[in-house]
């Protein structure tokens, strides 16, 4: 089985990816002024407008491949915690930083 996340475009502040979930989804991330702008075309994101697991998987994979170099784990943790995210709101800042380390 191949990777579920395919990074199609990566830079220090932007990533575009295809993520294989129950369907194939397109994810886009953009880091700007300490905020993470993200989009996914899955039903969860379209309904909640909020960070879905595909975006989360893309962040982790992009990090692993050395993209998003301008984003520090601490600033991303701040952005995620500030986003009132259903999926990750039970994570502590330490959890997030550990995931991203
Ligand atoms: Zn999604």
Nutshell version of this structure?
The chain is α+β, with helices and mostly antiparallel strands and 101 residues long. The protein has one domain (5-100).
Element pattern in H and E:
EEEEHHHH
Mean pLDDT: 81
Gross morphology is globular
Q: Radius of gyration over alpha carbons?
A: 13 Å
Report the end-to-end length measured between terminal Cα atoms: 25 Å
Placed side by side, the strands forming the largest sheet appear as 1-2-3-4
Instruction: Tell how many strands the DSSP assignment holds.
Output: 4
Strand content: 25-35%
Specify the helix fraction band: 25-40%
Tell me the number of structural domains: 1
Largest sheet: 4 strands, antiparallel
Hetero groups bound?
A: zinc ion
Supply the number of helical segments.
4
- Low-pLDDT segments: none
Secondary-structure class:
alpha+beta
